[in-house]
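User: Glutathione-dependent formaldehyde-activating protein. Structure?
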Amino acid sequence: MIKKVGSTEIREYHRASCHCGAVEFEVYLPNGLVSPRRCNCSFCRRRGAIAASAALQDIRILKGEEMLRLYQFNTMTARHYFCSVCGIYTHHQRRSNPDEYGFNVACLEGVNPFELGEVETVDGIHHPADSNSE
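Assistant: Predicted structure:
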């Protein structure tokens, strides 16, 4: 099944990768892109990615799991993963919902995040889990 977001096609099982191809993964997206958004916290502002949501069991690393590096900060709850070769953020386990991953929409094969139109920005600066997530 294929869902469209603007002119962008999102497949039910969509392959994704980092820039250099060392990390490849598949995201199960039966409902298309769920909650695509940017975050304004100090970390997300710097990386600039649009993240969408998937359940933990809906992301499967196909290649290069050993190439992923973990970054954590502040409350040390969220788990942000990057390719150790090219540095691209691929996905993270959310602190707002630890049963979900956020994944980098730009990693999806054939998806240009600039074609998604207006994307919500969430307030990560004032996250309820801390007094200041900057």
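The radius of gyration is 14 Å. The longest strand covers residues 34-39.
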